[in-house]
Specification:
Elements: E1 2-3, H1 7-20, E2 39-45, E3 50-53, E4 58-60, E5 68-74, H2 79-94, E6 100-106, H3 112-122, E7 130-131, H4 136-140, E8 145-146, E9 148-152, E10 157-163, H5 171-181
Parallel strand pairs: 5-6, 6-7
Antiparallel strand pairs: 1-8, 2-10, 3-4, 3-7, 5-9, 9-10
Length: about 200
């Protein structure tokens, strides 16, 4: 995990090497730990943080009322963040019918362009591009460093928090997520869906 106060320095130091690295396929979760370090949280209410899409449209967690949310704070210059993104992308597909949304908020100061470039180069297909460019959401959530991932249940309460990268797409991880923040897809097995469906760019 990279402390937030080091963000600006590391952004300058790591962005160019990350962008310039050769393209290669990344296996979801390859070499990453499971959720053994997940901190269980006893249902604290989560602030209704706001974030933007690539076109500047403002959204908030309230858009996901009634759904579980896997909320990840990351950046393209953060090496452990980058390592777990394919697993989060795979997770979004695995739980698409479980009324659980996977949201990844980038703190890249360059906004959408570096995230769009990263998604293209690494084949991220399911995750929407969401931005916390000024770090307001991270501060409101008490995030100490990135990557940090919160598990939020359908009542808007935090049930788990993990600081550091993980294999979110493993069978064990998916089982923990379903147990903590709900599964079954609601009445008739239908998901409420996402306001970002259909585009991640």
């Amino acid at each position: 995990m990279i402390p937030m106060k080091r963000r600006a320095l590391l952004a300058a130091a790591l962005t160019l090497p990350m962008v310039a690295s050769p393209r290669k396929p990344w296996a979801a979760g390859a070499g990453l730990p499971g959720l053994s370090n997940l901190q269980r949280v006893d249902g604290a209410a989560v602030p209704d943080v706001r974030f933007t899409t690539a076109d500047g449209t403002v959204h908030s967690l309230a858009d996901y009322a009634g759904q579980g949310v896997v909320l990840n704070l990351w950046a393209t210059w953060c090496v452990p963040c980058v390592a777990e993104m394919p697993a989060l992308d795979a997770l979004a597909r695995l739980i698409a019918g479980d009324m659980v949304a996977v949201l990844t908020l980038s703190s890249d100061r360059g906004g959408a362009p570096p995230v769009e470039r990263f998604y293209r180069e690494k084949g991220i297909q399911t995750l929407p591009i969401l931005l916390d460019q000024r770090g307001d959401a991270a501060r409101a959530l008490g995030v100490r460093g990135i990557p940090t991932t919160l598990l939020i249940d359908r009542a808007g309460k935090e049930r788990g928090r993990l600081e550091g990268a993980a294999d979110w797409a493993s069978a064990d991880s998916v089982g923990v997520i379903r147990q903590l923040i709900g599964s079954g897809g609601g009445p008739g097995g239908q998901s409420l869906g996402s306001p970002f469906r259909g585009s991640n760019a």
